[in-house]
Design brief:
The complex is a heterodimer of chains A (about 170) and B (about 160). Chain A has about 170 residues and is mainly α. Chain A contains 7 helices and 1 strand; from the N terminus they run H-H-E-H-H-H-H-H. The longest helix of chain B is centred in the C-terminal third of the chain and has 28 residues, at about 115-145. Classes of the chains: A mainly alpha (about 170), B mainly alpha (about 160). Strand 1 of chain A pairs parallel with strand 2 of chain B, so a sheet runs across the interface. Chain B: It is found in: Mitochondrion inner membrane.
Amino acid sequence: MALLLRTLARRSAGLSRPHYAVLCRHTAPMGTTAEDEMNKFWAKNDKLNRPMSPHITVYNWSVPMLMSITHRGTGVGLSGAISACALAALVLPGSFPHYLDLIHSLSVGPALIGLAKFGLAFPVSYHTFNGVRHLFWDMGKGFKIPHVYGSGYIVITLSVLASLALTCL
Amino acid sequence: MASIVLLSSVFHRGAKPLFHRGALLARPLVVPHKDQESPFLLSARIHVSQTVNAAAGSNAASLHWTGERAVSVLLLALGPTAYLYPGAAVDYSLAAALTLHGHWGLGQVLTDYVHGDAKIKMANAGLFLLSTVTFAGLCYFNYNDVGICKAIALLWSK
């Protein structure tokens, strides 16, 4: 987008009165889809064995960026945990109460139990609240930068509070 | 995803409105390209994939997107429902909604990070297998064991 604006600005400096309606006549539909173009990009760069350009190691991290990857991380983590439980249910011989009693008998101590509960509650809370934030974006609301940060801080606060509340339940 | 072309919003009359434009939610996919015949005029090559597909009658991607949001909202509603009315109906609904939400979510992750036709196919096949096993396991747990709601209640009672 910025490239287009800069190119336009450069062009209009040379022309006396840029007629954008005229420019529309020079648009030509491409034969390929955006997905094809993207695949061509990856194929070419793979074939030439080019290294990945530094991005996450170079770019300054921001709160929205961190929250976004955390949303993805909690999602993948929770999904993995659910799949692991489902697999365990199919493979392991005993029943759930049986294995729960096994863990009980280990007498872990309240601090560790609290920590474990918080460790389970926080990903669920964070992913849920940030998910709601995503749904607001899907409705087209809350894209202004101050709102993105504001809603972000609200999600973090609510997640921590909800996790604490669930831990103490 | 869909390549939406909004020529009217980019080629607006005069430069000022263009710069003071508000949030452009649908970004035009325009590639500035130097036209050989008239090098001083900006030429744009545009992606018309979505319009082409629309003409061909496929709004699969759009329906998928809507489906994802619908399942998300359903899952959101199932949370308090599971707390207030635990039981078999909620157990199986949770199993279905959790598996589908996870399947589609992981599908987006694969789409973002896996490239190359063969790798994409394999990754999606693996994901399908995982989701199937997950759903089977959760249903088995609901049927032969205490069920999701009761399990969480027992786990938390410690």
